[in-house]
Design brief:
Layout lengths: L7 H4 L3 H13 L3 H13 L5 H15 L12 H10 L9 H23 L8 H8 L4 H17 L36 H13 L3 H13 L5 H15 L12 H10 L9 H19 L3 H7 L18 H21 L12 H8 L1
Helix pairs in contact: 2-6, 2-8, 3-4, 3-6, 3-8, 6-13, 9-10, 9-14, 10-11, 10-13, 10-15
Amino acid sequence: MPLESVKLEDVATNRNIMIRFVSYLVDHHAIENMRFWLEAQIFKYEKDPQKCREGAQKIYDRYFGPKGVGINVEEEHLVAELESKVKRPDRTIFMLVQNGIWGLLKLECFPRFKTLEGLDDKEVPKKKIKVLTKKDGVQEVIDLLDKFLELNTLFPTDEAGVFRPTVLPNDAYREHLHTTLPDIDELFKDRDLFLAFREYLYQQLAHENLSFYVEAVNFETLTDEQEICLRAKQIFDKFIGPQAAQPINLEFMTVERLKKNLSKPTNEAFKTVTEKIWKVLTNEWFPDFVVSPLYLACNDETIEYVKSDGGRSRKRSATIDQYESLCKRLQSEKQKKKNGSKSHPPAGVSPEKEKKVKE
């Protein structure tokens, strides 16, 4: 697997790599984020009500109390919510904050670690571990890492054995609203989630990314040559051209290559750009969305303001039409697959993720 495509989830259960990552975080003064994440992850497995209360209070006091060490949480409303819930906690109490910290580790710390340290799966020498653990608090972090790995082996977060950081492991408590934070591919099976994400992107002035994605993916299904030429020009003019109404952020060379592709367009003319925008949505916008108040509102069945057509003031748009068309396509391909025909996931969605989308 190419180095740039390896995510933190891919190596989170690899002890050798994670110890090296811990060492990197120590050197860059970010170890408290990892320690909190590990404590919160282990806390998810606690089902005893009394131990849950004690454990929640301990974690809260350590990181968020008056004498807490503090971690990088910009969403103040999440900390305020913790304060109101810590006296009567459940296993989900830290999940939203934990997901925000995971995003920080994954999107900021881990890419730099990969660049500087590499990802060789080599055993860390005991001598190096001994030196490392002499630093304040590091032995505790490694002990937490080992506890997490043990629990994940006993109660994996995914039946396929793939680690999923945003779920409640071994979940038998479906009455909780926020037991599972979604993966981005769930947008294609949950219309309310899609509408809430669309609304969030409008609020962040980034909705053009989602609009382009669904239009470009549907463009890939076209077969008529004349229609391909017409729609290619429309999409380019709308999202990329000099007078674009909803310009997406692309490098100059990417635009120039795209112009060459569009001189004689095929239905794969936008494929490289589509995959790039999918990565932007996946790595930059969706992790922030699922720790936002808007996601909380979407996930609460008693709150309707982000549902229906995407909000009180947000009218139906071409994006919704394109989204519904894409969902119909996925449903149709699901039926074809049942009948023995091959299907193809949207650009940016892996076959494994497509399987989850269709379930």
